[in-house]
Amino acid sequence: MPLTTHTAPVVVTMTGEPPIRDGAVTVDGDRVTAVGPAAEVVKRHPDARVRRWDGVLTPGLVNAHTHLQYTDFAHLAASGLPFPEWLAALNRERADYTEARWQESARRGVHLMLKSGTTAVADIVTDPCVLTPVDRSGMRGISYIEVISDSPRWQAERRAKLLAVLETPLARTLGVSPHTPYTVGTAAFTDAVAIARARGLRVHPHLAESAHETEFVRDGTGPLAALNRTFGFAHELLAAGSGLTPTGYLDAIDALGGDVHVAHGVHLDAADRAVLRERATPVALCVRSNAILDAGVPPVADYLAEGSPIALGTDSPASSPSLDLWEEAAAVRELALRQGYTAADVDARLVEAATVGGAAAMGLTDAGRLAPGTRADFAVFAVPVDGDPHTALVTEGGGRCVGTVLGGRMVHRR
Ligand SMILES: [Zn+2]
Description:
single chain; alpha/beta; Urease, subunit C, domain 1; TIM Barrel; eight-stranded mixed beta sheet; 16 helices; 16 strands
């Protein structure tokens, strides 16, 4: 296969170097072989075909939290239902879905991601039938198999089910997602994490999304206690709670660490945030989903100021206006500024979160950056190239993806 050199007025590599003006990336098969100033790179590979882009070329974006199978549930995000009713509506609709519909919905999600420059995804999988279409798409990242179970059901059947799904032969990496501290019993949660670790798999739960979760984990009371009773869940925390915050609770059961990243991270105080930093556990922020579900406002300015490892997630269209990661980044930026984060690095930090930050959250070493040897996953955004490219991407990158290359193949072109 002939080499291809992609040139652009600005190339953002995320390797620690500043953006390259008039840069280029040469691709051989599914790998990047050269990155640098276009004049040098073109000279070094004179036989390569040259494709000239307008705009900013970046590593493929990394969406650190979504549920691809819920792509077709966008009407729920628009419903305005508060969280418990939203969840009930979601469950009602689930009953009507066939495997074919789940797969179609997941495929549509993949398509929307590629169209907006995302090439890697942390996908929560409730129904294993979506593993195949996501695997075939060539998208990178991890499919986290969801666990929702109290501890008696876990022992009786769910544990065996998880073990069976983890044997699915796929090119894509699997992980385990114990759903939340309130939908997974304590013993089940601990064991699911242990199962992942015994296999070298990563873990990705939702954490501290709503104030109700804090109440449930601490006291064993509130609307989520009622929800557990409705579903007949014999959750250990129903008796008296744990006396801990959700973050403190996950830490106490050894469910945080460098092999874990959590979604949402809305209700964390300074001590909780310090625990996440000590455990090197990144947070995938999903601020637009939090707003739609009225879950609260995550302490974005504190995460930035304190140097917490962060990534960005769109969550699923069931609770989010889009799967476009720059649109999420713009919302996070607005929130950070509103919360008083005034440092000049805000846009650079958010570009980092959307690329290397997401890759780190999934332990991917050759995604989210462009250097010789990394996978040829990148995207081009038609944004102004004169000023700071980070600001241009974060504030104007939404809806502006003009090309996406996945493993060396052009998968989107506009
Ligand atoms: Zn989620």
